């Protein structure tokens, strides 16, 4: 798909698409790497 | 570098070069006109939109942070009976609990798990005498695990009353099972301790040496390993290296703290407050009748004892024939070193702790050949250690032969045991704790 042609004459749409593209990129990174890691090595308590 | 659906608007370093190259092409009558200015600023527009997206994402994250803080303040006590990672391995909820004057934080271990009537977290949940209990710990929470939790909340410890509950079984073997600390370890808590300005370099060195014995704790986190090794080495060159990475370490912890707040917010949001049905919860405002409560607790303990499946105790040695070996093993126990580190940390932080210890299991130890005289060694060593740090101790030595103080043959107290614990917690919070270092009969 030729994006240049698609956005030709639609500068506002182009700006919006660009903004949403980067926002999605940043939020995906935050989602992928932003969760806290509280994992510990495996542990089974035997005394119950 | 960034590829996407809008491929023609390339933000890679090559993009300005392309535009620049177009500028240098000499114009001739037959040549096409130079690129329009809008095309030349394509890279800039990418930068503007990327920055806008980053700002908006930052606004989302900031909003998330304030949402998480708000929910932590409003719903902290729904986390009191829980054992979630955000509570045990994070710092946000422990700090929040320690910062509240109406909350007594109780650092314990597996005794917090069995669901028995009169368990402290239920007993104080409606704040019957003006405070609630916030237990922190789960199975296998040894002294080193407690240390990292305390070290992660250094700022909140000054002048704060808190309780340490000891399981004597941890002090009866030379080495504590490595999985106990590994399974309770927290990278964030350890980092917060190591980078706190509240603690001395000597304490950080000694703690680092202990933690380095558990390499699994550092797996996948070079910052933590580097910091522990530098503190353990302790030389001026190592201190210099620590100074070099301080800004990076601060950023690393800032991100982890943000994650911690948001994880804690999610965890609290997903919890439902227990309505107390089927649990023993004295209501606020009603005077507690401790004598009546004692009778109820004893009765409940007898019911639990009748239901429990205690293993028959097999006598393996004659009485007193294992006293010396018991004393040697106990004297060498690693847990003493770690417990002393906890006492040092609390002293440096200016906290006001109370140490409580369950009794030994007399019937189990008798069967193993440890006499009453041999068993005295534990209480004496404990008393000597806490006295050096000026910390009050409540040791229920008189209950080591009580058949219903515990709910099983491990360090898991039953209803009667919890009655004693609750009474001591109430006295401690209200500054009514007896002067005697060893609790005899409280009623």
Task: Describe this protein's structure.
The complex is a heterodimer of chains A (48) and B (443). Chain A has 48 residues and is mostly helical. Chain A is built from two helices and no strands. The model of chain A has no long low-confidence stretch (mean pLDDT 80). The radius of gyration of chain B is 29 Å and the shape is globular. Chain B is 52% helix and 6% strand. A five-stranded parallel β-sheet of chain B has the order 2-1-3-4-5, with helices on both faces. In chain B, helix 7 crosses helix 10 and helix 7 runs parallel beside helix 16. Chain B has 19 helices and five strands. Chains A and B meet through helix 1 and helix 2 of A and helix 3, helix 9 and helix 13 of B.
List keywords for this structure.
heterodimer, A: 48 residues, mainly alpha, rod-shaped, B: 443 residues, five-stranded parallel beta sheet, globular, disordered N terminus
How do you describe this structure in short?
The complex is a heterodimer of chains A (48) and B (443). Chain A is 58% helix and 0% strand.
């Amino acid at each position: 798909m030729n994006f240049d042609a698609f956005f030709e004459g639609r500068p506002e749409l182009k700006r919006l698409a660009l903004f949403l593209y980067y926002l999605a990129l940043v939020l995906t990174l935050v989602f992928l790497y932003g969760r806290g890691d509280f994992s510990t090595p495996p542990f089974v308590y035997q005394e119950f | 570098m960034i590829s996407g659906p809008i491929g023609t608007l390339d933000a890679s370093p090559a993009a300005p070069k392309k535009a620049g190259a177009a500028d240098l092409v000499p114009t001739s009558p037959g040549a096409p006109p130079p690129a329009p200015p809008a095309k030349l600023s394509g890279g800039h527009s990418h930068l503007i939109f990327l920055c806008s997206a980053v700002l908006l994402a930052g606004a989302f994250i900031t909003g998330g942070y304030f949402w998480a803080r708000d929910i932590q303040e409003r719903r902290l006590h729904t986390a009191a009976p829980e054992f979630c990672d955000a509570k045990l391995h994070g710092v946000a909820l422990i700090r929040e609990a320690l910062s509240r004057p109406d909350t007594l934080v109780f650092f314990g271990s597996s005794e917090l798990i069995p669901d028995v009537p009169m368990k402290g977290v239920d007993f104080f949940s409606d704040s019957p005498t003006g405070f609630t209990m916030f237990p922190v710990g789960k199975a296998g929470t040894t002294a080193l695990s407690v240390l990292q939790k305390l070290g992660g909340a250094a700022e909140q410890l000054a002048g704060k009353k808190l309780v340490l509950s000891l399981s004597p079984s941890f002090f009866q073997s030379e080495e504590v099972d490595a999985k106990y600390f590994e399974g309770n370890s927290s990278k964030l808590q350890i980092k917060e301790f190591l980078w706190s300005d509240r603690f001395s370099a000597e304490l950080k060195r000694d703690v680092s040496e202990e933690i380095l014995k558990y390499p699994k704790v550092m797996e996948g986190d070079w910052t933590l390993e580097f910091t522990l090794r530098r503190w353990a080495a302790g030389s001026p060159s190592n201190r210099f290296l620590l100074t070099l990475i301080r800004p990076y370490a601060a950023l690393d912890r800032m991100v982890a703290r943000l994650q911690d707040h948001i994880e804690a917010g999610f965890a609290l949001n997903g919890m439902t407050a227990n309505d107390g049905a089927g649990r023993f919860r004295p209501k606020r405002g009603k005077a507690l009748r401790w004598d009546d409560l004692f009778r109820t607790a004893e009765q409940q303990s007898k019911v639990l004892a009748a239901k429990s499946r205690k293993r028959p105790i097999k006598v393996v040695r004659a009485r007193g024939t294992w006293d010396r070996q018991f004393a040697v093993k106990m004297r060498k126990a690693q847990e003493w070193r770690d417990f002393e580190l906890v006492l040092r940390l609390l002293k440096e932080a200016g906290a006001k702790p109370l140490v409580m210890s369950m009794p030994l299991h007399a019937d189990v130890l008798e069967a193993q050949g440890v006499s009453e005289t041999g068993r005295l060694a534990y209480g004496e060593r404990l008393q000597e250690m806490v006295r050096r740090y000026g910390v009050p101790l409540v040791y229920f030595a008189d209950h080591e032969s009580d058949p219903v103080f515990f709910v099983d043959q491990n360090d898991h107290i039953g209803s009667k045991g919890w009655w004693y614990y609750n009474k001591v917690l109430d006295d401690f919070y209200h500054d009514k704790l007896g002067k005697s270092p060893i609790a005899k009969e409280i009623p």
